[in-house]
Write a structure and sequence with these properties.
This protein is an alpha+beta fold. It is 34% helix and 28% strand. Helix 4 packs antiparallel against helix 5. The mean pLDDT is 85.
């Protein structure tokens, strides 16, 4: 019994040592990315902050895929896929024929480039603004109730895009990090991370898609001190569009894993 207990303790100690070594390696040297984000891109858990245990709290990274075409009716692409060619799949290390023959192709970890508050966000905002203006061109005070309700929804949609929605958009994926680092080395608003992806094939359209499942590190843990700062936040009203309540300085290290360097409550 003592032998098993000793073995379990050794495994626990070794696991913790490996964890701390990994953190140290990640934070050694220059950061691969560094951004100042807000609640728009880093959301709190659904539970109220004051209800969280003191053992830990994590902020979840919110990223988006640009609107496909010019239809702004959906806030997010919940399917989270992009159209992709067979040649592009090969460059990412996939075997396209397997996607055709099998529907359960395993996910693969790739490197993702995410653009923060850049051209992709401005394009998205422009599409939604244009859609609203086109609607207004035919709207009058005499329009029926349904048109009045639609006007309110479109106004809320536009306000949400301007004030609340994430400005972090998928730019492209690659099989190796060096390709993305070399391409975006001088762009300070580009975040390089690791994420899971899987290709599929649509027989009806004879087209491939790359499904982007999740970031490899979707959460950013906070220290006890940082968590205490957020405990003072006022609850949000989910029925209205809310301004961000905090800003967060985040770095991604050599292993493309994030950590918070500072956090500020915007109510201060």
């Amino acid at each position: 019994m003592k032998r098993y207990l000793t073995l379990g303790l050794l495994i626990l100690i070794l696991t913790n040592i490996m964890l701390f070594v990994g953190v140290w390696i990640n934070r050694t040297g220059l950061a691969t990315s560094e951004l100042v984000l807000t609640e728009r891109e880093l959301s709190l858990p659904y539970l109220n902050v004051s209800q969280q245990e003191d053992s830990g709290l994590a902020l979840q990274i919110k990223w988006r895929i640009p609107i496909q075409g010019t239809d702004p009716s959906h806030r997010y692409n919940y399917q989270r896929y992009i159209d992709i060619t067979e040649t592009e799949l090969v460059s990412l290390g996939f075997e396209p024929k397997r996607s055709i023959q099998r529907s359960n192709v395993l996910k693969k970890e790739l490197y993702w480039a995410l653009e923060f508050d850049g051209e992709l966000y401005q394009k998205q905002l422009s599409i939604i603004e244009d859609h609203y203006q086109i609607f207004l061109a035919t709207f009058t005070k005499d329009s029926d109730k349904e048109q009045h309700r639609l006007k309110i929804r479109l106004e809320e949609r536009l306000d949400e895009e301007k004030i609340q929605s994430s400005r972090l958009f998928l730019l492209e994926t690659a099989q190796n990090s060096e390709e993305l680092i070399e391409k975006y080395i001088n762009q300070k608003n580009i975040l390089i991370v690791k994420g899971q992806a899987r290709p599929t094939y649509d027989q009806k359209t004879n087209a491939f898609r790359l499904h982007l499942h999740t970031l490899s590190n979707p959460d950013i843990m906070l220290t006890r001190e940082q968590m205490l700062l957020l405990k003072e936040l006022k609850p949000v009203d989910t029925n209205v569009v809310n301004k961000p309540r905090y800003t967060v300085d985040v770095k991604w290290g050599s292993r493309f894993e994030p950590w918070v360097t500072s956090l500020k409550n915007l109510a201060d």
